[in-house]
Design brief:
Blueprint lengths: L6 E5 L6 H9 L17 E7 L2 E7 L11 H12 L5 E7 L6 H11 L5 E6 L7 H6 L9 E2 L10 H26 L11 E6 L6 H9 L17 E9 L4 E9 L12 H16 L2 E7 L6 H12 L3 E7 L7 H15 L8 E3 L8 H15 L5 H14 L11 E9 L4 E7 L6 H15 L7 E5 L14 E3 L3
Helix pairs in contact: 11-12
């Protein structure tokens, strides 16, 4: 059985509580929420459940009556497109504010569509909302469901409104999911969709690049810096010409990350924090540079953060189609990366163009390869053969004439790869020797530019609690 969850779109004018309702339905604060209108700009999806009714819910930008060429107009067009293929729509109004002309305009548009609509009167707590609820009957969309997304009141009533529309499809999807789980785990199964986050400074072209990959205007773009606010995940299938197969990718677009001193707006602070969380959930992070601006200190800070979180890192220079002195630009950025990210030398660097599509397939193929290295586990026997050779080629120092004994090494975990070295007097082991081990692991064991963690452990001395214990060195810090 192959069934997908039904899709429910949340629609309404700005600041009626759409993102608050979205967060309430998925059970976590995934969408940015603030009192000022227009916080949400791109579609955001999440898994929702009400009393066993499972569906995919989509948060959309506030509907505004503006020209299509303006930013609010382009946001409205994104909302209109989101209704295509949806199974149901939740039309949200502000019960305390009553019905506005914009609410009436949205209702007229919805009545012309084929998608069933459930009218939701939000902010319905208290007597102040009663008049707005009664007034909403005039929209011609049936009986309104009074809820308070902020306080969680009336959410269960949405079950009654949605079940007749999406109930059967939800049950089919649940049955298909249960059947798949009974098949058991396969050790040779693929690693799942590649979680690929696109990060960088504002206006580097992150959303444009994702739209180019998808072949549609899925994300809002434009000349204005800082359009993207939420971190938006888009599931996508890509044909890999190198592997000659179709591969699954979860693309994550993030807000532009400026220097902290320049970030004063509350919404931008929330957006940057959201982008940092997106890095935590990614497997591979692509730092996107603007070829017309080159590499700046802020780019290195973003790259360092990704490495500190243990993510596999790649760097792509966008707008290559308009780059000047391309060869010297590429070589200069390569040298600056090696110097500025000395903890991980040789980070993959690509020249791409979101406008023409140049280099994007090559970049994506490399992303799968670096994830494979990031997930690699080295057999203990092979690991210790390398370890013995490394010690023989460059024995540990003997400070004060006392030998530092390194006994053996094991790989404790993957994603990122983490190794534990056991020995004695490890507190005296110089950082330079720890770097020697990390660089050897990368060069000889196939981890290349992947952030590698090395932890040192000494056996505890029962006669001296102040000795032993070792330390740790991280190749990603």
């Amino acid at each position: 059985m192959n069934a997908t969850k039904p899709t429910v779109i949340i629609i309404g004018r700005p600041n009626v509580g759409k993102s608050t309702l979205f967060n309430r339905l998925i059970g976590k604060k995934l969408a940015l929420v603030d009192d000022q209108p227009g916080v949400t700009r791109d579609r955001r999806m999440g898994d929702a459940e009400i009393a066993g009714l499972q569906f995919t819910v989509v948060d959309t930008a506030g509907w505004e009556d503006e020209d299509d060429a303006t930013l609010p107009g382009r946001m409205r067009k994104q909302t209109e497109v989101s209704l295509e293929g949806a199974d149901a729509a939740l039309f949200v109004i502000d019960a305390r504010a009553g019905i506005t002309p914009l609410d009436e305009e949205i209702a007229r548009w919805l009545r012309e569509q084929e998608v069933p609509v459930v009218l939701v009167a939000n902010k319905a707590e208290g007597k102040a909302a009663e008049a707005g609820i009664y007034e909403s009957y005039s929209l011609g969309l049936g009986e309104p469901l009074g809820v308070s997304a902020e306080h969680g009141e009336g959410i269960a009533d949405l079950f009654g409104g949605l079940w007749p529309i999406i109930g059967s499809k939800s049950e089919e999807a649940e049955a298909a999911e249960e059947a798949a789980s009974l098949e058991g785990d396969d050790e040779n199964a693929p690693a799942g969709p590649l979680k690929l986050a696109i990060v960088g400074r504002p206006n580097a072209g992150k959303s444009t690049l994702i739209n180019r990959l998808l072949g549609e205007d899925r994300l809002l773009t434009g000349p204005e810096a800082g359009i993207t606010r939420d971190s938006i995940a888009v599931d996508w299938e890509w044909f890999d010409p190198k592997a000659n197969e179709t591969r699954e990718i979860r693309l994550i677009d993030t807000a532009g990350m400026r220097k902290r001193a320049r970030v004063t707006d509350k919404i931008e602070k929330m957006s940057v924090a959201d982008a940092k969380r997106a890095i935590d959930f990614a497997e591979v992070v692509v730092l996107l540079l603007d070829a017309t601006q080159g590499l700046e200190h802020q780019d290195l800070k973003i790259a360092s953060q990704a490495l500190e979180e243990g993510r596999a890192l790649m760097v792509a220079i966008n707008k290559w189609d308009i780059a000047e002195n391309a060869s010297s630009l590429f070589n200069g950025i390569r040298e600056a990366l090696n110097e500025g990210l000395s903890q991980v030398r040789g980070v993959p660097l690509f020249a791409v163009s979101a406008k023409t599509g140049k280099g994007l397939d090559t970049m994506l193929s490399a992303a799968f390869e670096i994830r494979e290295a990031w997930s690699r586990r080295v057999p203990t026997a092979a690991l210790n053969r390398w370890f013995d050779d490394a010690l023989e080629a460059n024995p540990p120092p003997a400070p004060g004439g006392r030998r530092i004994k390194l006994r053996y090494i094991t790989q404790a975990s993957t994603r990122p790869p983490r190794f534990v070295v056991f020995g004695t007097r490890l507190d005296d082991l110089p950082k330079s020797y720890e770097r020697y081990l990390v660089n050897g692991i990368r060069a000889k064991l196939g981890f290349d530019a992947v952030p590698v963690r090395v932890v040192l452990k000494s056996p505890k001395n029962p006669y001296n609690a102040n000795k032993g214990g070792g330390g740790n060195y991280s190749g990603g810090r």
